[in-house]
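::Amino acid chain::
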Amino acid sequence: MSTDDVLAEVGARLRRIRREREVTLAALSGATGISVSTLSRLESGLRRPSLELLLPIAQAHQVPLDELVGAPPVGDPRVRSEPLRRDGRTFWPLTRQPGGLQAYKVLEPRRGREPEPRGHEGYEWLYVLSGRLRLVLGEHDVVLTAGEAAEFDTRVPHWFGSAGPGPVEFLSLFGPQGERMHVRARPARRARED
């Protein structure tokens, strides 16, 4: 459906909603500040609807704006994808669109491998769901447990794997350089200075 087709149906929808609520054009004009003639032309399709006109009408009728414009229904939001296996890890993609920010649930088995840090373009955020995750990042060698998170520039040589007797399960958000996720609060001292 084209934009013109969607806009052509707005007038009839406006009239139907107003009549269902038993509101006169004069009463709607008083509630919105839009003239009776403009409201009448909107409903008859003689005036092209704009956001400037539709917002006060939606507020007056207490309906979402998409109800006035007949926005298409949202499709099934669930992401259903097959797990990927690479280098002993199992990845479940949690995003559908290629490129940009990517999210994965990862299961890393206990393998006892020696770290081989490598760097590449991007930025990553890790959140441990269960188990213990060893993260080697530049000069740092840390172990994260369930509920802990880490974020880092992937240009810094890094490596991660299970640090416990069993597997580790974690979420990984990875994006191109510059798409950083900041989960830290600003320090109180700095917040007062702003």
